[in-house]
Amino acid sequence: MSLTVGEVLKLPGLEGLIVRAGHLHLQRTVRWPYVAENEGIAEWVMGGELVFVTGVNHARDEANLLSVIEDGIAMGIAGLVILTGGTFIQRIPQTVIERAEHHGLPLIEQPYLLKMVIVTHAIGTALVHMAQARRTRHDILSQLLTGDYPSLAIAQQRAEHVQLPIDGPRRLVAMRLSSVSVLFERHPPTEAERLLQHTRQACQDHLEAWSRIRSETLPVILQGDLFIMLLPDQETLRADLQGLYRELTTLIGDMTLYMGMANRVENCGHYRQALNEARQALDVAESLHPASGFCDFSELGVLFLLQGIGDRSVIDHFVTQTLGPLIEPSRKQPFTLLETLDALLQENGNALRAANRLAIHRNTINQRIQRIEQQSGQSLDDPLFRMNASVALLVWRMTEVPSKEST
């Protein structure tokens, strides 16, 4: 639980605040309010601040306000509030509004008659209440994740008291930023550390905003270098996580991000087990570098063995040798035979059930089976080929960008 820019605007007494830009980004987390008394703000903020500029101590002309916008974007502030009216800033220049909108920075106008002490007091009080509730929620979840709680019944009672929905089936997802060494190789230590913390904060903010719009949300937990999410088990979860991964890759620059997902757990008493499973899946993802950045614990099996192969080219050669002849780059759908082979293996070789899975006619799948055997030079009745193909398909699904028609 955290205070967002949008929630600030809804606080009692702050109805006079008006959003001028960044309407689609009001989910940004506000760490604290900061009144900027210097000409620039880059040296005085660390990210997450709701920055107020008044024009009292420095002339805030168009050029200065544009510079403040650029500083705020670079430093990752939550939003910018400009006081207008009185004898200082009469209005917000249109260029400033357009610049903030272009960068997705919430820009808010505060009439000068709305006293600053009222605004900062309301935000400060809300932040204190939010922080207390946040600490309680994180404490409960951290205890459940480590198994370090006095009793499960007490943990459930505490969760109910703070309206923390821990009952019901969930999937635990653990994420970690990788290739951190790249930052320290390319930048001086101080700058590398600043970039690392800024990126971690950007990821946390994005994860919290992403989880907030989902039903039955739970807070994102930080444990060491892990981001941990406990998500409702839904049919679209895997596709949703792939979309989330693509969004996060735009935030992490030269670093990489990997995810590991645990098996479904039915209640909060199994969160500790789920975290252990997600860690194992995450370790495999970091070893095999899937294009989706994602590994599901339920799919591990032989991947544990593949993880032990030090030379990744050996794995790639095996996949290419096994599946390469079935890829048809000249066709509109080059992976049709791979998807058909995958469906056949999923249905234990039953062509009729595989045809139903693919929503195609039985004659069509029989034709595809003939093409698979002709182009691979193997028989689907050969158990060794089926085993090799199953392993190769598992690696292929992880390391290749799936086609739009992929099953």
TrEMBL record:
Superkingdom of origin:
Bacteria
Residues covered by the Purine catabolism PurC-like domain: 7-126
> What residues does the CdaR GGDEF-like domain cover?
154-284
> What residue stretches are annotated with the PucR C-terminal helix-turn-helix domain?
337-394
Q: Which family does it belong to?
A: Belongs to the CdaR family.
> What is the protein's given name?
PucR family transcriptional regulator
Q: Which organism is it from?
A: Pseudomonas helleri
